[in-house]
């Protein structure tokens, strides 16, 4: 275990006739004498040189004499590692080694989360999140990238917006804890490749444009000041493997420990994109695909983030859908976990078939087609709704009212099924590549807020998760942040991250014929091959028994 | 020979499906492939690691894509060495390796001199000098130091004043040559310890105050930007040995090569202070003392810098002093070389004795005491002059009119003799220490403007230089600047400078009894022991023959 940050209490010898070394020499000698830096006086190897080579810039040296005189030459030095050597970043009067803090952050395209960590204990003192101020330049990443394209000066705007987010988080953490976050010697950041490019003020067009050559995957350790982040020390950014396989995923590897274990695990991160890693200590396969924002409610008409007013749980009670709303307020829309529940319920109630089509009879269609009002369908809440921006009244679609005045459309369902199929096909394709099935998998990680909030049973029911031992399905939460925290506490994980990247093999999805075929088969609820989901069959059976009317095997159209 | 700065022409492979490395990786791979960086692919030793470890900061990476696309991927990278590793500082379109420049400077307390060097050829393209803008805060160093004492914020003023001087020099060099000096990857600076402290914004009080613990003697390599010096690269400051033995002297060692030679040499730098090094490749003794500004005309009533209007040469023609004025204008004062000539002439003419006293008879005193007007002295131009700020008319002194209306006072002579004695006693004391005489000395270097302008014969006559083979008395000019240039061209001299500092032994002058005794003996023209100056005896003899009236051995007072 190696640190990024050190605080060292020093009782400096006062200058006198016999010892009139310069302040710089006096400090360096005292720092090198400290146990933590000592590995023999003579630097013997490269490593030892790194440990004993300490820089003190004039700017910092400037105040040292005053601090020493004020504090009777009993002072505490703050040191940060710049990626190659140590630098003394601050000198404080007295012994302040007990106040030793660092920051870690997950830089997401929607949200930036930051934690203040006690570096002496590893304890998280506080956590804060803000919406990424980049959103002002576009809700989705591509809009932001296009905003900067051919306008190099706009990269600065994106950079400054990102820095603003970090500053806000630092302020809030300071307010919450009373800790001066500006005194941190280190901030570790994990984020996807585009986010990191924006943080560094770089052109991110290469992330999306063939031949996908980006500006950097392993950026240099920067000074906070260089990036407009007011910490006195350095910013370490978790390296990325590929344009679509960012530092957030590598950080997730560190968080879960997947690359070190004997058992094979699957790591799936579903956000703006879907990223997948399958492997163990022997091999690591990784891939990314357009798992898309649909899963988080992004491209669904009434989709919204999991915040107050969002339907996050849907159940069926007495043959009627029942929505749970975050914050207990009036429902304003539906978030990812709500959608998964809704689809599971629709399917289990026999209201949609395995293709996701609403199960209405011709008569019902005729009757409800009349005026867009609540029809006579046997499915409570199903109506035909005019599409927004419809050219004529013919542009209607079946939609289910999941909460008062809120409709989930047929095309919303279709979109969601396509997306979940894409995500699941990545997993399946990769398992096929290595000749294994889900039964060989030790852990199935579903990272991110999505995995945290979703109901496992519902997710299995709609075929978003494989039908496996539920204990093996793990929602590790924000693994990007958790990995960043691990990196913060142990600098040697920097090399580990680099090794993971070297070991990883990138698997290209999409254009392969097999992939397309697998994907087509997966575009069903839960899957065209129901035998792969025995527990779903059992639930269906159970639901049918309790309410014999709803039998998805009865397809009224055929 | 190692460089501080490199320009490398690269023909980069374009990104394509098969090669979509990041810009950073692409550049680094190309740079490492270059012969100059290549020492095997694997970094085997620390040294090699330094050579192959190259940093590219996001700020620089930012413009690379545009430059590459504009230049058909044929570009020139500029690299600077930060003291530990290389950093890519700029990328230019096309092949610009022919334009490769660096800067070196001597940061003097009165004058800053800077040269623009073609790093491909080592040629000096232009040289410029400005008065050090610090002068606004005090003519002498101590005033400036006291200005900042107890006012830490004033250090910033001194720092900014110094940076302003550097910026002015860069602008002038750019104007003169058409070279964009901002594109320099390196500037080397040599200066005394106080000057370096001011350049870095540091408290310099320790230079003069017991126990003489300064802030730094070996400052870190800085970015130009950190110091307000607008070069894209780094500033390397020649390290110092002691508070009074600054980087200017170490730089002088590199310039003269004294520490490498078999023969023993003496290096004397006379400026605000007097610094001395005696040694060869076996040993190096160094010391510093209050040789003082008197030698440069500083504490002489009509003393001035060697500029237009200054008397810089004095001869005797037809029994009368004759002054040469720089610029051929009316005389405004006298500079160091003029003073040395004047004293030599006064002595050779028998107008002052070996103690420097004007040779006037009692009668002459009585007569001239009357009204401060030109007296009846046998010494042309000698009068009694009222002292400035005199309390009464009794405060008069003998003074010689060396140019119309300009007087050199008895107390000016006394001051000058004390100062030259101090300088020469340092040399003598050190030679005694090692048990050698000037006959064992290969070269006697007198560095600085003082040594350059002074007439060797006059200097020997007044005992300022030892009476030795004139060819061995060398005026190497501004060795601080010359050493800085050497450092600029060869980075390995950084280690050499550090070795010189390690080898050097500092000799304390002043309080030692022997030193005081030697100094007393040296307070004469040329010396109380005239036998040590046989050539001066010969000149006296010759002068007496040509004008029998002037015989210094005839002391009218005795």
UniProtKB/TrEMBL annotation, chains A, B:
<feature type="domain" description="RACo C-terminal">
    <location>
        <begin position="263"/>
        <end position="536"/>
    </location>
</feature>
<feature type="region of interest" description="Disordered">
    <location>
        <begin position="533"/>
        <end position="558"/>
    </location>
</feature>
<feature type="domain" description="RACo-like middle region">
    <location>
        <begin position="101"/>
        <end position="258"/>
    </location>
</feature>
<dbReference type="InterPro" id="IPR027980">
    <property type="entry name" value="RACo_C"/>
</dbReference>
<dbReference type="InterPro" id="IPR040506">
    <property type="entry name" value="RACo_linker"/>
</dbReference>
<feature type="domain" description="RACo linker region">
    <location>
        <begin position="6"/>
        <end position="97"/>
    </location>
</feature>
<dbReference type="InterPro" id="IPR052911">
    <property type="entry name" value="Corrinoid_activation_enz"/>
</dbReference>
<dbReference type="InterPro" id="IPR041414">
    <property type="entry name" value="Raco-like_middle"/>
</dbReference>
<feature type="compositionally biased region" description="Basic and acidic residues">
    <location>
        <begin position="540"/>
        <end position="558"/>
    </location>
</feature>
<dbReference type="InterPro" id="IPR042259">
    <property type="entry name" value="Raco-like_middle_sf"/>
</dbReference>
<dbReference type="Pfam" id="PF14574">
    <property type="entry name" value="RACo_C_ter"/>
</dbReference>
<dbReference type="Pfam" id="PF17651">
    <property type="entry name" value="Raco_middle"/>
</dbReference>
<dbReference type="Pfam" id="PF17650">
    <property type="entry name" value="RACo_linker"/>
</dbReference>
<protein>
    <submittedName>
        <fullName>DUF4445 domain-containing protein</fullName>
    </submittedName>
</protein>
